[in-house]
Amino acid sequence: MTNNKQLELNRRTVMKLGAGVAAVAGAGVNLAPNAFASEPAATKAASLGSRVSRAEGPLKVAGKARYAIEQKLENMAYGVTVQATRPAGRIVNIDASVAKALPGVIDVYTFQNTLKINKPTVYSKGGGATEEFTPIQDDLVRFNGMHIALVVAETFETATEAASLLKVDYEDGDAILDINDPEAKPMLIEPMGVAWGDAKVGLDNAEVKIDVTYTTAREYNVPMEPHATIASWENGKITVWEPSQWVGGARSVVAEFLGIDIENVRVISPYVGGGFGSKIGAHPHVGLACVASRQLNRPVKVSLTRPQTFTGLGGRPATRQTLSIGASKDGTITSIVHESWNETAIDEVHVEACNNVTKIMYATPNFSSRLNVVPVNTVQPGWKRGPGENPSAYALESAIDELAYALNMDPVTLRLANWADVDPSNNMPWTTRQLREAYAAGAEAIGWWNRNPAPRSMREGRELIGYGMAAGSYPMIRTPSEAKIVFHTSGQVEVLSAATDMGTGTYTILAQTAADYLGVPVETVTVRLGDTSLPRSALAGGSQQANNLTGALVKAAENARTALVRLAASDPKSPLQSLKLPELTFEKGTIRPTRRPAGGISIAELLKAVGKDRLEIEGNTFASGATEDMKNAADRSFAQLKGATEGSVSAHSWCAQFVEVGVDEDFGTIRVKRMVAAFDSGRIFNPKLAESQWISGMVMGLGQTLLEEGYVDQRDGRTVNANFADYAIPVNADIPEIQVISVGIPDMQATALGGKGVGEIGVVGVAPAIGNAVFHATGRRIRSLPITLEKLV
Amino acid sequence: MRTFDYVRVENTSAAISEAAKPETRFLAGGTTLLDLMKLNVERPAHLVDITRLPGLDTIEVSTDVIRIGALAKMSKVAAHADIMDAAPVLSESLWRAASAQLRNMASIGGNLMQRTRCTYFRDPGAYPNCNKRNPGSGCAALEGINRNHAVLGISDACIAIYPGDFAVSLVAFDGTVLVRGKVERRIPIDEFYLLPRQTPNLEHQLSPGEMIVGIEIPRVAALKRSHYLKVRDRASYEFAAASAAVGIEFEADGKTVRDVRIALGGVATKPWRLRAVEEALKGKPIDEATLRTAAATAVDGAKSSGHNAFKIELTPKVVARALMTVGDIA
Hints:
The complex is a heterodimer. Chain A contains 17 helices and 29 strands. By secondary structure, chain A is of the alpha+beta class. Chain A has 3 domains: 31-65 and 478-636, Aldehyde Oxidoreductase, domain 4 (2-Layer Sandwich); 66-387, Aldehyde oxidase/xanthine dehydrogenase, a/b hammerhead (Aldehyde Oxidoreductase, domain 3); 405-476 and 645-793, Aldehyde Oxidoreductase, domain 4 (2-Layer Sandwich). In chain A, strand 20 and strand 21 form a beta hairpin. The longest helix of chain A is centred in the last third of the chain and has 26 residues, at 545-570. Chain A is globular, with a radius of gyration of 27 Å. The two termini of chain A are 41 Å apart. Among the domains of chain B are: 5-49, Uridine Diphospho-n-acetylenolpyruvylglucosamine Reductase, domain 2 (2-Layer Sandwich); 222-326, CO dehydrogenase flavoprotein, C-terminal domain (Enolase-like, domain 1), CATH 3.30.390.50. Helix content of chain B is 28%, strand content 19%. Chain B is an alpha+beta fold.
């Protein structure tokens, strides 16, 4: 446990961090104004916008997509981490003698036999890390499940056995294990609070009030591919194979871990088996793999077991929110008072921005919101799909449903009655807000107006039937990025970016974009991703990547068209060299005389004619004067990230979620019978992929609402259900028919091609929609997630 | 994990003689054993692979008895047409267990040997105190997270739940475990499993060197009209919050109970037969109220350890509903 003086110091750091987060969130940073066209560019072919299947799908299904951890390297050693079994205190001694004596064990690293791992810079301070903690640097126990040793052996099995043979002596310390612990010391994150009007007076004078508390459990991201890394040190350089949502960020973190120049670090992440926010930062085990590889001068693989992933990195923190809403009898909201608390690590700050939806969804003359963090002995929490927006919408949209019943008003009607014409938190105009259309489409599709709105009024056999709905939003963030196109004489076109594809479809939509803007068949386009040796890209997180990359790629394609026409007009060996530049046109992958449609030559023919093997063309969405430092910053930090209110307009994705549930009146078991959601994600690049994203978000929301909860033993802070049998996520049998509807229109103020975020909006609003449906079915308002059967039995 | 020997045997006598060695485990589907070995809970020195033993995967449904070989796969038994017809409860309790992939691997004999899912039992690195693993060391679950621990058949030494489903059906219908060792034995299923008392490390009647070769279930009328109801938060692939294996036989009037069988899963330290509830219903015509009243006594003697109190509320409702289902009044 830290002493008081250290704790005070930590608190101050924490406050700075909080401010840093707010600064990042609100920062308007340079992006070329001309990066955005005023009108959608005319599509030259039918590719973008069509339902093209995932390019890498067949490889994955056939087991031919080789993931980071599946790389086979010569002379690889295997590292297994040992995790603490106490929540606080100090490690007095780690006796590794028995483990070291096991044949095949190479070494055991602990704080007593340490390898230096430098603290990385967290994103809120301008770096690429999501936590500062680095293991085996000291004897302090911060949480149950933190890495305290790395055992390296010739085989994984030997390392695992040796890991079980360490004898660890602890000196116990006092721990705070729960957000509700009376000993806990919540800290206000003042810069992230929001207020206007006089919320207290507005509430005091309201004719109708509701005053509620909503909580969510500690959740985990649990992607199918567990977290694991291979680090290979060779001659002062290191290559790291890492499942990553952000190879640029991981690269800078690895450079910091090792204290080496970033130019000597390469991070490769060809395929990613899901991340949901948990693979944005390179986590502490990556540091262990890197320093062990350098020490041993051979490749080291560190693969967390599924249970170890629960504390090797954090998921969504537990939250508590209080909401008071005042309204006049006609349903006009007069005040909203909101406060939230989320758990964070004992010496680091993760703020779950629980007011992200609360502050923008409804017009109200008076508003106040305060965010607090509660340091507890837990792994530093992280981002899980819709961080902030998800719990924010849960409390707000549940409370609005409560208000609707208090007013005897329909929940959709109440929402429309409090429609925000502008962003109420800053009075900026919306870019696009097709939320009315979403309400209408969702209500129509589920038959909202045919239900009996009285609670506990509908049943089928022994099942009580309920309908519920909720709205949601997700901010449109953007970061400038690069892309490169390589033309080959074979006719193949390569598209290159360091960005990774988590399974969302990046490979596919980039191929579609290139095909579209170059007028070539989509089959001729090969996309290469997930490698820091490729053109710089921001993270695949915050629902920004598709728009970032398509924007950059279109720039590259435009540059390519210009360059190809110039080449055709200028190279002495070009068949079209007799023509002047204005007399040439680029169309459908050919360069031709403007007046003679039949006289064109293909890109490959041009390259062959002029004697070039390949032609590389770059494009990017940086401001014209962007320096290398700025471009690197976009690749490795959040410094170039544009918030949702860049340019004094407010850009968000929107959704309206509708569900029907059946609740067994004896057992309290909830089965979701139908889910319908309408989304405004702007222009959709590939409906098949976008729908998959939305649906998967809804599935994840169902799990959060009904199943997912980390059980923390309050005696020792251990997550006792750290496995897939006991930490339940939905299986196919839980998932009903899901209908998703796109109501978006191209939003040219939001992004270059008019798209908005797709990946996270799907999960936002699911929990309140289901909770509201459970109330409608049963007449019982359950205000804590997950709604497991004992809460209703 | 600990290094171990592996031997594949070709006949039952070889299996039995191999198993006489200390620290030996039979390996069939491996769906429990390999898990527990990875967790360092099971640390056998020798594994005897019995998957190739001939003649142990048969399923026979004759006029008066059902015989299932120990190596029959759960999925095969669950989908067996005669079983589905003659004994729905057996099929249902199998296909509601685990996942399709696990059922394709797991054997019936291994299923009977499935060990508890107590999370403290399964985490020896963090919890050396477990009376099941280390007799006399204490029980971490008693005051820990015990949402899915037993409320019936518990002791102050252990509250670990019996996690399975199929054996609950067997207990309801008086199944017999066929065992081969130095001699052949027939062990009534209800006696096969032991209460934890002060020796939770002893879970069953098998001695070292003994091997389950099959099970038998007598065909009674109530078996034909039987059902397995499993209640849980997740719709599939989750252990029961509470479950009931039931069967009913009516008198000629179609409503008076001649025979009824009830056993519980998901709430007790072993598959839990409810003989008192059965007796209370025999000779009575059923309706919903009668069934609910009788089912209320299903949890007589139950004790909550904290998080699992809901099981005491839930169980009578599960019993009543299961009986209503077979009585056609659900």
